[in-house]
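Researcher: Going back to the complex we discussed earlier. I've cleaned up the inputs and rechecked each line, so this should be the final set. Can you rerun the prediction on the complete assembly and write out the structure?
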Amino acid sequence: MALSGIQIYKMLPQTNCKECGFPTCLAFAMKLAAKQVELGVCPYVSEESKKQLAESSAPPIRLVTLKAGSEIKAGNEVCMFRHEKTFYNKPGLFIRVKASDPDLAAKVAKAEAYKVNYVGMDFSIDGFAVEADGDLTAAVKAVRDVTKRPLILIANDVTHLDSSLSLLAGESALIYAADAQRSDYEPLADLAKKHKAALVVRADSLDALAELTQKVQAKGVEDIVLDPAAATLGASLTRHTQLRKLALKNVRSLGYPIIAFPCDAKDEGIAAAQAIAKYAGFVVLSEFKPELLYPLLVLRENIYTDPQKPIQVQPGIYEINSPKPESPVLVTTNFSITYFAVANEVEGSGLPAWLVVTDAEGMSVLTAWAAGKFDAERIAKAIKGFNVADKISRKRIVLPGHVAVLSGEVEEELPGWEIRVGPREAVDLPAFMKQVLN
Amino acid sequence: MPIEIPKDKWTGSIRAVTIGATSAEGGTRTKTVTVGGQTTMPYLQYEAMPSGDEAPNKPVIAIEIKSRKPEDWSPLLADVWGEAMADPAQWAKKAEEAGADLLVLALTVEDTPEDAVRIVKSVLSATGLPLIVWGPGQAEKDNELLVPVSEATNGEKIVLGICEDKNYRTIVATAMANGHLVQARAPMDVNLSKQLNILVSDMGIPKDRILMDPTTGALGYGIEYGYSVMERLRLAALQGDAMTQLPMIVTPGFEAWKTKEAKVGEGVPEAWGDWKARAINWETLTAMSLVESGADIVVLRHPESVKRVKDAIEELVTV
Amino acid sequence: MQHTISFTHNDKQVSVEIPTGALLSDAAHLAGIDIGQPCGGQGRCGRCAVQVTEGNVRRRSTLRLSPDDVEQGYALACQTVIEGNVSIYIPPQEKIERRLTTDRVVAEVTVPEGYEYLQDQTVRRIHLELTPPSMDDQTDDWSRLQTAFRQQHKMEHPFGSAQGGVTCSVSLLREMGEVLREGDWNVTATIETSRRADEQTSRLIQLQPNHIDEYSPLWGTAIDIGTTTVSVWLVDLVSGQVRAQVAEYNGQIARGEDVISRIMYASKNGGGEELRQRVLDTINELIKTACKRVNAKPEEVVKATIAGNSTMIHLLLGIPASNIRLSPFITAVGHPPLMTAREVGLKTHPEASVDCLPGVASYVGADITAGVLSSGLDTAEDVTLFLDVGTNGETVLGNRDWLVTCACSAGPAFEGAGVVNGMRATQGAIEEVWINSETFEPTYRVIGGVKPKGICGSGLISLLSEAFITGIIDKAGNVNLMAISPRVRDGAHGGEYVVAWGAESESGEDIVISRVDVDNLLRAKAAIYAGFTVLADTVGIPLDSVSKVLIGGSFGKYINVEKAVQIGLLPDMDWPRFEFLGNTAVKGAYYALLDWRKRKQITEIAKRMTYIELSADNSFYDAFTSALFLPHTDMSKFPSVAEALSRSN
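Model: Rerun complete. Updated structure for the full complex:
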């Protein structure tokens, strides 16, 4: 159970010595409660308190890291719903390839090279799941020639797994899977231990899953991933939810990340979207399809955005409704809600415009203004930096109505530009553009 | 050792709301749609109380049609609806064939009150589906069109939209007078949604005549706000907050087809993949994410998305 | 059936005959007695309480009356039915008001118990008799004076130097010779002894010829510089008594209503100097006014203790304040050194000591540390909440073990600024309003009983609550234009309600509350409510467990807690838990002005308080939006208001 700031405070020395870098012990306690600082910073805390605090802060879901040339993490989550805190580790998206596929290397290379940009961020896939329907060792070798991303090995032949994992020395791969329906968990666990790999435990009931996990734990495997083997959207939603809830209740045998296989679902896109939103740590897709991968990557980014810190839009000049050189230039900040409010209103009106998004560190117009992140200087810098003048024929910009007070200074910063003050609310923009700007 | 599955014990439930009235009920619809009735977070039926054994109503799909041929819709939509887009009655029939459980008819600013009444009536006679009618989205114009529509369809139990905090009194009043429902939309905020529900119900309209529209963004365009707002509204409702115990209607079709990703096929990055598949994915994934966070009515535009979402809903209730 | 009702009113007796079933208020009316019914006879305000001394009546409602009141025969005239012959005593109105459980009147200021001028005060006046110089004794004037200090008052230099224990400024040296000789070597010195750390140093503030009566007033002033209102108390440091209390809007308002705008203005060419001058003008004018009331001169004021938020203190001292606004929000100085009036620009005695109290953080300043001192929060055993209902909406929660604090921008609405017909709580301000829920006609009370000029903070709280309870505005603050009354109309700023017609008002113009005013008030109350709820949440203290809510603010002499709860400014809890303390900042400054131990205590408070930055996550925004409703989006938090609403419908 997480402790509150006041509860932690009572375990601290309460001397307000400031040596931890915080003005009071209570301020430090609250940072501890928010997990934003380590207890070790306090030189005077008692051993007794240290013990109590360590227990209350152990993560309910183990962090499992798959590592090769790049790494992907799953686990360490602390809540059921993203608004309660945030979801931390974005689920890894893996592309399934088959050892028997003659085009294996070419397919992997194509997926490997995939890169897509979303509001200034570059996304790619996280790794590959190699299915041993042919020579696994040869396939792993072929795959390693074209990608350095982490691998999941779908196989149960211990000999082949052993030689394949030997090829991946120094990496942390994921072995799929110790299955409750088979009795070969022991050699697989040994293998995982030997190669420092993580091991998936698969069972279609939570009881069986917990039982097998405990056996694997007993064999000394620490990095475990759960496959609750749900066949329908309803079943996966139910079991993933139950697993997360149990893990948060500190049921240690189920406190591990989940792997999902939308590749086997009726509607892969819908199943993958559900897995992303509902608690999966690793998601395996059937093949490389950019028209699905792109929306899934975007969804993952959206769901895993910290709801306490809303996303920022990449500063720049955005085109709305194919603007022409004579179209108006609107200025706003890079707080995503602000940006979307403005962009949506203008877009919905059908009126063409250039939207200049300034770097206001993700704050709304008024907040940014108050904090000095949206002033004449920054606005002028954006107008100049994005070469707005090259795109337009009429040097005129529209400031948000909330910062009407800045118009004089912007005029000084941008000689030769006409500065207009627009409405305070985005919803009044279309009318303003129609009635005032013509 | 068997695992004990933890269950949240909720005290509240979502109100069941019925749209449309058959001739026996004073309308002309051949079927009605009932949504709501949930007693758990979405599709976690194992948490339902034994007494609440009855399965809740499944989410339904509305297809959006317009009173006039929309000029700004994606070519992909124009391809699939074809000529019917110019004739609301025909469009309505095609939408019914495409699997719609009910229809959204969006009026436009060009419509006169007489146009609006005539078009609404033509749609009502073209299909037996329950109907939601939206004004063009400008307060004065909405009131000008929706009041005569409401009066001309007395007893049909249509849904009148869209009530917002700045313009709700007229729409609520005419809905009450003519036995209709209202759609109450607040901009992606738990508190604002709840406040609008309070204002609307303070006027005396029964709570089973209100659909709440929390507003959403499309995938990539703020869906996470809508998603979390809906989860929070549903949580509040289950915790017993009467003012959030209303079924939710959202418009993923409208939102998704506004995005460049769905709307446009040319001049976009190659990494976005095949246009049509991507566009349908955009609408479908937006819709399904919202269904899984508690939507009761999703308003869609493309028949293929309709089919995928419909199938997925069936699969969701199969555990 | 007719009954005889005998009234005792103003020591007179009147009797009337009235049939069964009539109300006591009807009977009183028949008897020509005017019983005030501000709420229009709806049993809401409790102002028509009378005492039944003989006979039986039937009380339809005893709202506002305690069981004890009923036991003593009290009944609401508008809610009580006559069923037989009765005798009624009509108490004077003030007596009724004192009985009302809803009103909290700010306590009179009294000299702290046990105040000993010679023990507690850092400034004092001492008599010195110097040996006149001669050809044999050519010691210089200053050394002579120092010797007198040492010999007659045992004032040693801190380092034991032969130089003696008192320092003075060069300007005092310039006039010293003349003063000594004018008094024929008998002089009165005013000195200040400061105790910082273990050192004790003395500074000569003024030197006057001859011996001045030791017990004649020695003037000091306690000042609170609010963003909106500046308050000045003139204090006789000898008796400890507050002899004059004056307040005025801060002259800086003309350059921005909130601290952010002021900081922005100050950072522009010459803006800082202008703002410094503006607030100095306000303070100096107030000191002048206060002095005039007691026939003193501003130059006789020898000590000033100043509370104020960090921005106000920076602007007063002409220190650049821009870092207060910018992340990570750092003040230039949290605890300014002791200064003189000459340095600061106060038109008191130029050598007067000026002590700016210490603050906690950029947005929790000395007004709050002083407020905590005067409220006693830092020594409370149980968890206590202190709210400063001011422009910056600071909140402190805690007890003697821990203190947390936060600030939120509430705006000046409750101080009567930023509201069309708002004003400070002075003569002519409407301080209480009742509205009849059927006719929408108001009854109001004006400070000083004169024609109304405007509405002060407590009047706005009461007006907002009444407009809400009677349905003139909806829960979102929209004026309900469907309400049929000439007082509800479409004005220049949207819907508005006329509280006083031009014919009744001092200016001849209608006094109204508009949609924009309502919005401002809603934002102010929402910010304050959100501030303390998030603060309590952050430290994990349920609001219910708060044993006392102390309210500070300059919105009037009293607050009707029921109304403040109805608009969702205060949490819905039992009324006895609320206490209204008035301007706690100036009161804290007053205590610090008198007693060096209290002064030290403020420094300790500043060190102990933990500042919580509300903008760190979205929870404040969330709490704010949910509070931006009447009384709140979550009605379950306000059961008493739900009840009041159902009564009124």
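Model: Worth noting: The radius of gyration of chain C is 29 Å.
Researcher: Good, that matches what I expected from the previous run.
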